[in-house]
C-alpha cells in the first residue's frame, strides 16, 4: 500500500504552495448559485455527479448513439502526476477544474486546454495514508473548495486560484485524511474524513462558505448514551476508534433538506472485540443540512468484517417501482446487493434488495427491515481463515453508478465471480496514526479468487428501475473499475479495464459503439459539457490506488501478468468536423 515517505518538517502542515498562473481567460466567470446547483444547465458540469441526486447524467445529446463513432481527440493535457486520477473535470462557463494526486488543482480553458493556473498543497512528509488521490473540488459563488490529504479545507478564487482561507478539519497525525469532493448546499461546505484503517472515528462536518467557520460536526460512530451508541460494546471504548469513514461526496434532496452519505466499515476488521451492529458503519445516513442531525439511516451490513464499506451515496430517483410511485434512494452495495430504499423527511425505509452479483455469505434477508442473515462460517473473525463472495473489493467498490431518466435504467460497474480468501485474523493493538486492521497486509493484497478462471468478472449492468429486472449486461474477461456517465444521447461511457480503453455503449441495449486507448488505465469520473455550442466528453486517465492493487492481486494468483502504466492525462473528445 502506498505511503508518503518522510523528508520534510512538520511545519509543512500549514505551508501552501503559491498558485502558479499560466494564462488568462477573457471569459466572465458565472457565479455558482443555489438556483444553478438545484437546476444545473446542461452545458455545464457543476458537481461531482452533475446534479444533487447523484445521477452522473447529462441531457446533452449532440454526441449520441448515431454519431459517437466519430469521436476524436479535441485536446489532451498531461498532469505531471502518477497514481490514481479519479476526479471529474468540472466545467462552469468555459472554465474547467481537475484535481490530481498530490492535492493539486489545475484550472484549464475548457475549449482549448490552455492551463490557466495551478495550485498544489504542500503536504507534511510524515503523512501516511492508503489512498493518494483526490476526487474533485466543489464550486459555489466565485470560489472553489478543496479537501486535502492532510485534512485541510481550502477555499480559492475560482478565476485566479488565489487562496482565500484554509481551515484544519482534523489531525492527520492520528490517521485522518480526505480524498472526497466537498458537497455545498445553501452556503454550507460539507466534508468528511477517511482513515478507518487507522482507527479513526468517522464524522461529517459543515463549514460556512464565506468564512470557513465550522457550522456543525456529526460523528458516524455514536458515543455511549447517543442514538446508536448501544450498538457498540458497553465494556470498552472501541467506539472511539470505530471507523465509519466518509470517502465519497453525498447526494442531496432539496424537498427534505437531507444530504445522504455513505459510510465506511467498522474498525478494526476483526469483529470479536466490537460485538453489536456497530452503527452507523457500512450504512447510508440522512443528515439535516441545517443542523447536522442524523434523521435516518439504513445499515447494509451489520457488524461488518468483510471490508464491505458502503462509501458511495445512494442515487435519489423518483420513479414508479412495481406499480407504486416511490421516492427512492438506490445503491449498488459493495456487499453485492442492489438496494431499493425509500427516503422520507424523518427516516429511510427498506423496500427491497437482491444480489446483483454472486454472494455466498448471506443466508437470507428480512423482508420488512432488510436486515441480513449471515453464514457465520464465511464471516472473517479471530483465529480462522475465511473464504467468501463477493471479494473484499465488493460487487462494486467506490466507483459510482449512473442513472438515465430517458431509459429509466440504473447502470452498475460490477465485478461478478470474484471472491476473497483471507488468512486468520489477529487482534490488533491500537496506536494513533498506525494501521489498525487485524488482517495481514500480504493476505489482503493476494486475496482474490475466481472459482472458474474462464468466467467473466467485470460486468457493465443495466437494471430497469420500474421492474427491478436486469435489462442487459456487457461482460469483460478482466475486472472492471470505473465510474460511469450516461447522457441524453442514449450513451453510457465507461473505462476501468486493464487494456486502457475508454468506451461508449448504447444505453438501451449495451451495444459497444466506440472505444479509444488511453495512455494509462481510466478510472476517473467522466463528464460532458458544451462550449460555444459544441459538445465535449472529458475524462482523466491515470491508473493507481485500489485498481492497481487489485491488478496486483490478480497477478499474484493467475499465470497471466498485466502491468498498466501510470501517469495522468486528461483526455477531451469531440465529434470530427
Identify low-pLDDT runs: 1-16
Report, as a whole number of angstroms, the end-to-end distance: 45 Å
Spatial strand order of the main sheet: 1-7-6-5-4
CATH class: Mainly Beta
Total DSSP helices? 3
Mean pLDDT: 94
Shape: globular
Biggest sheet, in brief?
A: 5 strands, antiparallel
User: Which structural category do the helix and sheet elements fall into?
Assistant: mainly beta
State the helical fraction.
under 10%
Task: Kindly estimate the percentage of residues that lie in beta strands according to DSSP.
Answer: 35-45%
Number of structural domains: 1
- Write down how many β-strands occur, each being a DSSP E stretch of 2 or more residues: 39
What fold name stands as the CATH topology?
A: Methanol Dehydrogenase, Chain A
The CATH superfamily turns out to be: Quinoprotein alcohol dehydrogenase-like superfamily
Report the radius of gyration as a whole number of Å: 22 Å
Q: What is the level-2 CATH architecture name?
A: 8 Propeller
Description:
This protein is mainly beta and about 575 residues long. The chain has a single domain (about 10-120, about 130-225, about 245-575), classed as Methanol Dehydrogenase, Chain A (8 Propeller). The strands form ten sheets. It has a five-stranded antiparallel beta sheet, with no helix packed on it. A hairpin with a 6-residue loop joins strand 24 (about 360-365) and strand 25 (about 370-375). It is globular, with a radius of gyration of 22 Å. The chain starts with 19 loop residues before the first strand and ends with a strand.
Amino acid at each position: 500500500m502506498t505511503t508518503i515517505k518522510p523528508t520534510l518538517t512538520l511545519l509543512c502542515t500549514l505551508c501552501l504552495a503559491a498558485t502558479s498562473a499560466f494564462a488568462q481567460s477573457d471569459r466572465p466567470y458565472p457565479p455558482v448559485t443555489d438556483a444553478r446547483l438545484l437546476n444545473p444547465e446542461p452545458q455545464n458540469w457543476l458537481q461531482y455527479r452533475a446534479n444533487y441526486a447523484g445521477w452522473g447524467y447529462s441531457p446533452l445529446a449532440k454526441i449520441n448513439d448515431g454519431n459517437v463513432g466519430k469521436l476524436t481527440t479535441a485536446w489532451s493535457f498531461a498532469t505531471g502526476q502518477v497514481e490514481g486520477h479519479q476526479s471529474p473535470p468540472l466545467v462552469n462557463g468555459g472554465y474547467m477544474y481537475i484535481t490530481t494526486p498530490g492535492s493539486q488543482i489545475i484550472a484549464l480553458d475548457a475549449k482549448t486546454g490552455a492551463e490557466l493556473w495551478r495550485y498544489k498543497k504542500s503536504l507534511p512528509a510524515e503523512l501516511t495514508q492508503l489512498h493518494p488521490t483526490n476526487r474533485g473540488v466543489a464550486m459555489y459563488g466565485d470560489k472553489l473548495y478543496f479537501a486535502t490529504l492532510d485534512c485541510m479545507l481550502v477555499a480559492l478564487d475560482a478565476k485566479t486560484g488565489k487562496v482565500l482561507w484554509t481551515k484544519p478539519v482534523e489531525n492527520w497525525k492520528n490517521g485522518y485524511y480526505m480524498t472526497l469532493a466537498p458537497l455545498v448546499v445553501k452556503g454550507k461546505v460539507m466534508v468528511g474524513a477517511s482513515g478507518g484503517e487507522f482507527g479513526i472515528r468517522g464524522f461529517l462536518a459543515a463549514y460556512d462558505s464565506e468564512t470557513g467557520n465550522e457550522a456543525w460536526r456529526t460523528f458516524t460512530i455514536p458515543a455511549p448514551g447517543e442514538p446508536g451508541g448501544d450498538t457498540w460494546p458497553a465494556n470498552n471504548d472501541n467506539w472511539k476508534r470505530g471507523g465509519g469513514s466518509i470517502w465519497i461526496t453525498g447526494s442531496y434532496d432539496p424537498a427534505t433538506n437531507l444530504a445522504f452519505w455513505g459510510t465506511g466499515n467498522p474498525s478494526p476488521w476483526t469483529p470479536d472485540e466490537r460485538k453489536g451492529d456497530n452503527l452507523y458503519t457500512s450504512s447510508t445516513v440522512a443528515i439535516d443540512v441545517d443542523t447536522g442531525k442524523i434523521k435516518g439511516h439504513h445499515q447494509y451490513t451489520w457488524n461488518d468484517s468483510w471490508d464491505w464499506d458502503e462509501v458511495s451515496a445512494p442515487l435519489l430517483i423518483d420513479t414508479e417501482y412495481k406499480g407504486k410511485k416511490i421516492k427512492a434512494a438506490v445503491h449498488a452495495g459493495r456487499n453485492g446487493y442492489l438496494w431499493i430504499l425509500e427516503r422520507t423527511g424523518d427516516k429511510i425505509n427498506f423496500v427491497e434488495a437482491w444480489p446483483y452479483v454472486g454472494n455466498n455469505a448471506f443466508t437470507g434477508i428480512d423482508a420488512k427491515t432488510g436486515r441480513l442473515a449471515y453464514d457465520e462460517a464465511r464471516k472473517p473473525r479471530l483465529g480462522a481463515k475465511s473464504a467468501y463472495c463477493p471479494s473484499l473489493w465488493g460487487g462494486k467498490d467506490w466507483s459510482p453508478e449512473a442513472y438515465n431518466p430517458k431509459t429509466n435504467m440504473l447502470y452498475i460497474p460490477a465485478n461478478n465471480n470474484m471472491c476473497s480468501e483471507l488468512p486468520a485474523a489477529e487482534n490488533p493493538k491500537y496506536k494513533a496514526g498506525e494501521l489498525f486492521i487485524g488482517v495481514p497486509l500480504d493476505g489482503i493484497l493476494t486475496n482474490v479468487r475466481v472459482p472458474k478462471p474462464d468466467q467473466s468478472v467485470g460486468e457493465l449492468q443495466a437494471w430497469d428501475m420500474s421492474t427491478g429486472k436486469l435489462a442487459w449486461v456487457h461482460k469483460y474477461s478482466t475486472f472492471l473499475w470505473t465510474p460511469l456517465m450516461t447522457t441524453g444521447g442514449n450513451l453510457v461511457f465507461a473505462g476501468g479495464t486493464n487494456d486502457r480503453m475508454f468506451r461508449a455503449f448504447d444505453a438501451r441495449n449495451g451495444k459497444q459503439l466506440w472505444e479509444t486507448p488511453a495512455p494509462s488505465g481510466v478510472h476517473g469520473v467522466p463528464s460532458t459539457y458544451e462550449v460555444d455550442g459544441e459538445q465535449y466528453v472529458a475524462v482523466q486517465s491515470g491508473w493507481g490506488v485500489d485498481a492497481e492493487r487489485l491488478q496486483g492481486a490478480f497477478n499474484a494468483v493467475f499465470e497471466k501478468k498485466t502491468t498498466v502504466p501510470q501517469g495522468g492525462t486528461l483526455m477531451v473528445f469531440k465529434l470530427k468536423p
